[in-house]
Amino acid sequence: MNTPTRFATLLLTLGLCPSLASAWAGSSLPRATPESVGLSSERLKRLDERLESAIQSGRSAGGVVVIARHGRLAYEKAYGEADLASHQPMRTDQFFRLYSMTKPVTAVALLTLFEQGKFQLSDPLSKYIPEFAQVQVYAGDEADGSPRYAAPKRPITIEDVFRHTAGFVYGVFGDTVVDRAYRTAQIDYGHADSVASMTHQMASMPLVADPGSRWVYSYAADVQAYLVEYFSGMPFDAYVRKTILEPLGMHDTVFGVPQAQAARFATLYNPNPAGGLIPSPNGANYERFTAHPFGGAGLSGTPDDYLRFAQMLLDGGTGNNHRILGRKTVELMSADHLGTISTPWPGYGFGLGVGVLKDPVAYGQLGSTGQYGWSGYATTTVIIDPKESLVAMYFEQVLPEDYALLADWTNLVYQSIND
């Protein structure tokens, strides 16, 4: 997995010869040549070649790349097509469904309330959501095969909710008793009406492991979103707009697929077993997030808007002349909070809502110790690297996530560093 892992004009034909950034796509950062910020234009051609190859092979329809370094936008390209049927060229101001790249935004929203003294990371979740005081942990099976449950060894803390160690699940990535219970209860984005209803449903479910004992990817970010509502007294999406999107000038970031922006969305694709890509039958489901905002998925937007968010974190919590978080809060957010708890990726840890690279050697990819970010189910990703003063992002719309392509892309970004 890549981070578990912007922008030019269009290609003339199926991803060949990507051009420089288009005149209509404004940027939140001043532009610079790659060489002026320590990148190699010659080596960046390797990145072009890899993405062009993915388009020509039918693995990708097209995408957008951005690389910013030292606070300047050095590489911004659009490749291929946003829609294969109409041959609509990909644009650097295209809208993309961000899926799990929503999670860092949710974490920042909750951390703004942490800074206001609303809670401590060590607080039991049940202090604010009493139903979680009665939660049980799956503890194996009885002799007759029925599940056995036990009281957790310690309560779920808010830190557990940030770092995916609460014992929650997604219900789709495993087949444990707990995963099956989530599926039976229809705890998912297609059925839940709100982050509040989902959170209260989750409180009635068993945990897959004792809190603080295992990293398990889950609906934890949706519990974070409910906590945002609890502490702020505002709807989650309204609070995100007020505290993050509007101050940063992220005017092209929305929940779901609003009708007013629908024409600017890249088409969502699945791999075709016979080769190439086919429009995803699940693409319309994302529209539900417009009326039902969630914290773990649901945001959509343009590459430049997400650059504003990522650069704010790289700059220690400030962006667009607004302070969103304090510098020390960003440092806490981007530090590894797992310690000896492992993720599925050797060398890769997790902070407060973001993945954190602990050991590039163990992880097996180019990068820096301490870089952080996350990726989305439709093959989008962001890397924020304080050591290299770097933000790098890739956006396309093919699901499930093309981890191998993102891994190649990551190496090709880092091999282009020339100083």
Give a written overview of the molecule.
This protein has an 8-stranded antiparallel β-sheet with strand order 3-2-1-17-16-15-14-13, with helices on both faces. It is globular and about 60 Å long. Mean pLDDT is 93; it is low at 3-25. It has helices spanning 41-56, 102-114, 158-163, 177-184, 195-202, 220-232, 236-248, 303-314, 327-333, 360-363, 403-414; strands spanning 62-69, 72-83, 88-89, 96-97, 137-141, 147-150, 253-255, 269-271, 277-279, 299-301, 318-319, 322-323, 348-350, 355-357, 372-376, 380-385, 390-395. It has a domain at 119-229: Methane Monooxygenase Hydroxylase, Chain G, domain 1 (Up-down Bundle). The protein has 11 helices and 17 strands. It has 419 residues and is an alpha+beta fold. Strand 11 and strand 12 form a beta hairpin. The two termini are 27 Å apart.
Topology, pairings included?
Elements: H1 41-56, E1 62-69, E2 72-83, E3 88-89, E4 96-97, H2 102-114, E5 137-141, E6 147-150, H3 158-163, H4 177-184, H5 195-202, H6 220-232, H7 236-248, E7 253-255, E8 269-271, E9 277-279, E10 299-301, H8 303-314, E11 318-319, E12 322-323, H9 327-333, E13 348-350, E14 355-357, H10 360-363, E15 372-376, E16 380-385, E17 390-395, H11 403-414
Antiparallel strand pairs: 1-2, 1-17, 2-3, 4-10, 5-6, 7-10, 8-9, 11-12, 13-14, 14-15, 15-16, 16-17
Helix pairs in contact: 1-11, 2-6, 2-7, 5-6
